[in-house]
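Structure first, sequence second, as always.
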């Protein structure tokens, strides 16, 4: 029952995220009802039900029969599925306490921000700064809450969870900033630096290697595939944010399902951190 609730809630949020992406792109006001971008006809509530209205209308505007982009149902379904997984893997597996509710609320918010970033980068290869700043500030606030209220580990001392997350954010952002400066923004842009900071603050330094490796691997595979299909050329740029977002989603999902699965990939990293904790605790 909880999964269904989170899925339906995610569908509604996904519909709103579509509006956010498109209105930011066109620099339109967020006031007023949704309308067809072609004929400007207002969309009635029964034609604005996430996913289902698209299927009923067969992907066309009721007023002008213009084809509706598949982006709308895909983003709605992606958000609904992501919300359902967060509700199932995180909330359902923990005691129903204030900490759990706050953490679930943050992860739902973070997922929404990341989906907006993913779609915006795919559409225009540009990410509105407001979403990046919101993500970084939100991640920092959540790390502060973890340090003050959530963590059962020592609040101070080498290896505390909040310190590992702060270090992850600094390392990730610093690495991407160096890549941007070295390539003179030909490999990636400053938006990727902000996004890397969000990723590092979320997974921490211990799982940063896996997340970034997965993101770069997905980018390389997709990029090579596009070149082989002659959709892109070797010197063409492709948006990197979607691969980083997917890498983060996979990492977080794996940590919630079974953290031990990452140990095979992270064995050298985990061993070094364990030795370091033992050394500094002596």
């Amino acid at each position: 029952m909880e999964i269904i609730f989170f899925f339906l809630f995610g569908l509604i949020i996904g519909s709103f995220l579509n509006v956010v992406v498109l209105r930011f792109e066109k620099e339109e006001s967020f006031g007023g009802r949704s309308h067809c971008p072609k004929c400007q006809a207002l969309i009635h509530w029964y034609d604005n039900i996430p996913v289902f209205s698209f299927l009923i209308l067969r992907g066309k505007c009721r007023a002008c029969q213009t084809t509706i982009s598949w982006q709308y149902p895909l983003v709605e379904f992606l958000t609904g599925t992501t919300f359902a997984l967060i509700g199932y893997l995180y909330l359902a597996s923990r005691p129903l306490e204030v900490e759990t509710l706050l953490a679930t609320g943050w992860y739902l918010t973070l997922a929404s921000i990341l989906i907006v970033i993913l779609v915006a980068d795919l559409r225009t290869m540009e990410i509105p700064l407001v979403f990046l700043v919101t993500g970084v500030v939100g991640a920092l606030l959540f790390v502060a809450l973890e340090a003050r209220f959530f963590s059962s580990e020592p609040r101070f001392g080498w290896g505390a969870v909040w310190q590992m997350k702060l270090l992850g954010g600094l390392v990730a952002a610093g690495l991407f900033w160096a890549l941007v400066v070295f390539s003179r923004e030909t490999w990636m842009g400053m938006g990727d630096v902000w996004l890397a900071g969000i990723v590092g603050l979320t997974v921490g330094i211990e799982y940063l290697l896996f997340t970034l490796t997965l993101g770069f691997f997905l980018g390389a595979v997709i990029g090579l595939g596009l070149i082989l299909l002659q959709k892109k050329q070797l010197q063409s740029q492709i948006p990197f944010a979607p691969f980083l977002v997917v890498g983060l989603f996979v990492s977080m999902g794996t940590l919630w399902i079974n953290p031990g699965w990452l140990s095979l990939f992270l064995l050298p990293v985990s061993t070094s951190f364990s030795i370091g904790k033992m050394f500094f605790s002596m």
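Margin note: The chain has two domains: 1-93, 98-272.
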